[in-house]
Amino acid sequence: GWAIGSFWGAGPSGAAIAFATGLLTTCFYEFCHCIQHLAYKPKSKWLAEMKKRHMAHHFHDESGNFGITTFFWDKLFGTHYDRPERPKKSPTVFNLGYTPEVAERWPHVAKLSGGVQTAHPRKRGEG
Questions:
Q1: Which of 1, 6, 67, 96 is deepest in the core (most CB within 10 A)?
Q2: Sign of torsion, CA 85 87 88 89?
Q3: CA–CA distance, 65 with 71 (Å, rounded to integer)
Q4: Confidence at 116, pLDDT banded by 50, 70, 90
Q5: Nearest residue to 61 (alpha-carbon basis) of 43, 45, 83
Q6: Do the beta carbons of residue 54 and residue 73 sit within 8 Å?
Q7: Residue ranges of the Fatty acid hydroxylase domain (predicted)?
Q8: Any idea where the domains of the chain sit in the sequence?
Q9: CA distance 35 to 32
Q10: Cα first-last separation, the chain
């Protein structure tokens, strides 16, 4: 709270610094998140490890490894994991929670999204 208060107390220049800091932080976060979802192999060991953990979140068990730029919050809240610790894949991992039960509850979402996909993502386009 004191940092925000000191920015606002500094007048327009403090507000501009606060805005620029927020903008740069958001750009950095979005850059990190983007490269985690693209076919890009980071040269940085830190970014490569973040990508590995976040991809486990999307393709192994979406109930953990939420971090994009740090593991701090996952470790603090107990959601950080290594893949061997959770050998069983989540049943909703490929649709990120959109199950037939969810589709039944919100049918308009099923209609707009093309329905519930149960096949492996690489097999969906096949006959």
A1: 67
A2: positive
A3: 8
A4: low
A5: 83
A6: no
A7: 13-79
A8: 2-93
A9: 5
A10: 57
